[in-house]
């Protein structure tokens, strides 16, 4: 089968090969034909070394497709079933799972760092986060495949598999935004646009979208933002819109400057939610004085604090009702051999989400 293989961290050139085979499925696993794969900024972060990734590797983790084969012990999925990929499946037995913190379970993801998912001759190839959706087929644990209705477009299901769940979940599950609250979202790519839609769904009264690329401001308003700003404009606009500061600030970019911007924009007693995956070596300083007297909380939102087997159907129900615009988030549809160009285009003004479609 065909797959895009990354051989060296930091090398923007992907190796498109037709001699790759998928390994498995083993017991408790599911083999999928990948029909659509979203191009997420985390894929670029893995390529550049901001997120750990053993190589050689097939990138990609936001996907949907059809079941081809199931391993021993999988009795609730069958070939032909349509599924969305849950890239952070819960094992069900670790301490986090027993506490009900399924979104913090790293069992299967960590296994993906040591267990290859593909091979090309004698070359063993890893899958990003144990997935690897920049390929025609992939294998995931049973918990990593969420069955969906046959009439859900693959592209819609793929975006629910990561970006939509991460953004909407940060607002609904993590921050629990209430009607009338004020929200600022920093970073208006796919996840940021999903967070804006989540704030609209939650009934936020003021939704400020912040991005360095002015071309993204119009898109943010289309999806529900009431105000837009560049980082340099945020202070003056905030003073006019919510002088006391926002109830919730969502940092989708997650670099030191944006986290500080989110902190400054949040009112005393408000909440800063870290949505993006920053670099491990980046640091931000806060004094004990400001942490105590500002009374703000900083909370992480890994994968939107989601339970995908619960949340994917909920998000698709909102999509069916016309309340969550997922098709409108798709900026470009591409072939698998355009994956490298898609990664290079991330951050440009006309990109919200790009989707690789395998016919």
Question: Which key terms come to mind for this protein?
Answer:
359 residues; alpha/beta; Quinone Oxidoreductase, Chain A, domain 1; Rossmann fold; 2 domains; 19 strands; zinc ion binding; ADH-like_N; metal-binding
Explain what you see.
The protein is α/β, with parallel strands linked by helices and 359 residues long. The chain has 2 domains: 3-161 and 325-357, Medium-chain alcohol dehydrogenases, catalytic domain (Quinone Oxidoreductase, Chain A, domain 1); 165-303, NAD(P)-binding Rossmann-like Domain (Rossmann fold, 3-Layer(aba) Sandwich). The protein has 11 helices and 19 strands. Strand 13 (206-210), helix 6 and strand 14 form a beta-alpha-beta unit. Helix 4 (154-175) crosses helix 10 (308-320). The two termini are 13 Å apart.
Provide the succession of SSEs.
Answer: EEEEHEEEHHEEEEHEHEHEHEHEHEHEHE
Mind summarizing the main beta sheet? 7 strands, mixed
* Unreliable sequence segments: none
Structural class, by secondary structure, is: alpha/beta
In percent terms, what proportion of residues is strand? 25-35%
| Total beta strand runs | 19
Give the CA-based shape.
Answer: globular
- Helix fraction by DSSP (H/I, runs of at least 4): 25-40%
**Architecture of the largest domain, CATH level 2?**
Alpha-Beta Complex
Q: Tell me, what is the CATH class of the largest domain?
A: Alpha Beta
What gyration radius follows from the Cα positions, in whole Å? 20 Å
CATH topology of the largest domain: Quinone Oxidoreductase, Chain A, domain 1
The total domain count is 2
Give the CATH superfamily of the largest domain.
Medium-chain alcohol dehydrogenases, catalytic domain
Pfam families: ADH_N (PF08240), ADH_zinc_N (PF00107)
Domain Enoyl reductase (ER): 10-357
InterPro entries: ADH-like_C, ADH-like_N, ADH_Zn_CS, ER, GroES-like_sf, NAD(P)-bd_dom_sf
Family: Belongs to the zinc-containing alcohol dehydrogenase family.
């Amino acid at each position: 089968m065909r797959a895009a293989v990354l051989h060296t961290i930091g090398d923007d050139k992907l190796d498109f090969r037709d001699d790759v085979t998928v390994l498995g499925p083993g017991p408790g696993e599911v083999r999928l034909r990948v029909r659509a794969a979203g191009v997420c900024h985390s894929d670029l972060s893995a390529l550049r070394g901001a997120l750990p990734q053993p190589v050689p590797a097939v990138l990609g983790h936001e996907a949907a497709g059809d079941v081809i084969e199931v391993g021993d012990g999988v009795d609730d999925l069958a070939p032909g079933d349509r599924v969305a990929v849950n890239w952070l499946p819960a094992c069900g037995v670790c301490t986090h799972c027993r506490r009900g913190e399924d979104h913090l379970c790293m069992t299967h993801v960590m296994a993906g760092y040591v267990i290859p998912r593909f091979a090309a001759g004698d070359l063993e190839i890893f899958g990003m986060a144990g997935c690897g959706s920049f390929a025609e087929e992939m294998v995931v644990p049973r918990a990593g495949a969420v069955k969906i209705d046959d009439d859900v477009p693959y592209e819609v299901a793929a975006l629910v598999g990561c970006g939509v769940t991460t953004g909407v979940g940060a607002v609904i599950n993590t921050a629990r935004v209430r009607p009338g609250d004020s929200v600022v979202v920093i970073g208006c790519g796919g996840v940021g646009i999903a967070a804006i839609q989540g704030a609209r769904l939650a009934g936020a009264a003021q939704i400020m979208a912040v991005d360095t690329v002015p071309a993204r401001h119009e898109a943010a308003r289309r999806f529900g933002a009431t105000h837009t700003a560049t980082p340099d404009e945020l202070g003056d606009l905030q003073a006019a819109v919510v002088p006391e500061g926002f109830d919730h600030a969502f940092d989708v970019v997650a670099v030191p400057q944006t986290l500080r911007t989110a902190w400054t924009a949040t009112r005393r007693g408000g909440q800063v939610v870290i949505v993006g995956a920053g670099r491990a070596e980046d640091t931000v300083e806060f004094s004990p004085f400001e942490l105590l007297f500002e009374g703000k909380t900083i909370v992480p939102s890994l994968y939107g604090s989601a339970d995908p087997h619960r949340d994917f159907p909920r998000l698709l129900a909102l999509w069916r009702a016309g309340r969550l615009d997922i098709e409108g988030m798709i900026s470009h549809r591409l072939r698998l051999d355009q994956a490298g160009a898609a990664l290079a285009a991330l951050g440009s003004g006309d990109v919200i989400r790009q989707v690789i479609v395998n016919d």
